[in-house]
Design goal:
The protein has helices at 3-28, 34-38, 47-68, 79-99, 106-137. The protein is an all-alpha fold. The longest helix has 32 residues, at 106-137. The chain is globular, with a radius of gyration of 16 Å.
């Protein structure tokens, strides 16, 4: 793999890992009233949002391990896995926002749409990067 592609892979993984860490950290704080502050739906019981937060946080750690752990021999989640996770997560959230009427304030919709679109855009950047890299190899 040419060095430029490795650098881009690393930058995309760091960006994606950071976003997942932030989303995971926010969801880990879900029981502390963060949902009402953001205006997003509150989950009852809080068990499921906290578990999702832990999973997202773990994905963020795995992405950062993949990006930064190479010199130390650590491996994490690769770019293709990140693409799949981003499209599944953003797609599910977008479908939920369109298909399920939620009783939340407008700022909740804004927060959730910003998350869905941001994660989808990151996945698209990663997919375009992978496609371009594969076209250069062939």
């Amino acid at each position: 793999m040419p060095m430029g592609n490795h650098t881009r892979d690393k930058k995309l993984l760091i960006l994606d890992g950071t976003v997942n860490l932030l989303l995971g950290a926010i969801l880990l704080c879900f029981p502390m009233g963060i949902a009402s502050w953001l205006g997003v739906p509150e989950g009852r019981p809080n068990f499921y949002p906290v578990i999702l937060g832990a999973v997202l946080f773990g994905i963020g750690v795995a992405l950062l391990l993949e990006a930064l752990g190479g010199p130390k021999g650590f491996r994490g989640l690769g770019l293709e896995g990140a693409i799949a996770i981003n499209f599944c997560g953003a797609g599910a959230l977008a479908v939920w926002l369109v298909a399920v009427p939620l009783k939340i304030p407008w700022r909740g919709y804004v927060v959730l749409w910003v998350i869905a679109i941001s994660v989808l855009l990151i996945g698209m950047l990663e997919l375009i990067h992978q496609f371009c890299r594969r076209c250069k190899v062939e």
